[in-house]
Amino acid sequence: MVCKITRVAVLYALLSGALAACHLASAANTALPMPATDEAVAPGEGLRTAVVAGGCFWGIQDVFQHVKGVVSATSGYSGGSAATAHYEVVSSGITEHAESVQVTYDPKQITYGQLLRVFFAVGHDPTQLDRQGPDTGVQYRSVIFYRDAEQQRVAEAYLAQLRDAKVFARPIVTRVTPFKAFYEAEGYHQDYARRHPQDLYIVYNDAPKVAQLQHEFPELYR
């Protein structure tokens, strides 16, 4: 219930002008560079998966659903156990879960590093610790859940590259964590931004991310 109450309160604050428009315009000093280290382009057939977390999964899912080469993006929970992978429990902030998105992609069309670039550039603000925009709690932390050694290598190298380049005005707090399991969220969370484009939470917090994706990455936008 905490998450729902927080979001309702935030909407009233937004309408009254108490909050500034979006963290999206905030942290980056300049455009994010391409990853210097990336996975190899896949020579054969087959899809791959990436799991990331960066605030409410509604917006992250919507962003990746607009990226060319992404076959599907699913909202869910990662970091904790199956027993606690339920919205009302995760929203309490006492589980190890983060609201996450599992991205299935075609590596012949887009690489893991390119997905991470989108994640950092428009998906969320990686300088916000255990929160994202109006949502607070460890369930909204910034995390890359790597599935294998190659994903770990690419993620850690890109984080180091961004930190060395001082791309963000504040320190990056994104964690790189081994993937354990992904638990799909309840049906009413799936495709939420697409199904509820007039929801004020989506209007103020998530629609600008998709607009920024189209503006900054026209070659990837669909």
Instruction: Give the biggest beta sheet.
Output: 6 strands, mixed
Overall morphology: globular
Mean of pLDDT: 90
The separation of the N and C termini measures: 35 Å
Q: What is the share of helical residues? A: 25-40%
Describe this structure in words.
- By secondary structure, the chain is an alpha+beta fold.
- It has a single domain (2-210), classed as Peptide methionine sulphoxide reductase MsrA (Peptide Methionine Sulfoxide Reductase, Chain A).
- It has helices at 2-15, 57-65, 87-90, 112-123, 149-165, 192-195, 200-216, and strands at residues 48-54, 70-78, 98-105, 131-132, 135-136, 142-146, 175-178, 182-184.
- The strands form 2 sheets. The chain has a 6-stranded mixed sheet. The chain has a two-stranded antiparallel sheet with strand order 4-5.
- Helix 5 links the parallel strand 6 (142-146) and strand 7 (175-178).
- Helix 2 packs across helix 4, helix 2 packs parallel to helix 7 and helix 4 (112-123) packs across helix 7 (200-216).
- It starts with a helix and ends in a 6-residue tail after the last helix.
Would you spell out the secondary-structure blueprint of this structure?
Blueprint: H1 2-15, E1 48-54, H2 57-65, E2 70-78, H3 87-90, E3 98-105, H4 112-123, E4 131-132, E5 135-136, E6 142-146, H5 149-165, E7 175-178, E8 182-184, H6 192-195, H7 200-216
Parallel strand pairs: 6-7
Antiparallel strand pairs: 1-3, 1-6, 2-3, 2-8, 4-5
Helix pairs in contact: 2-4, 2-7, 4-7
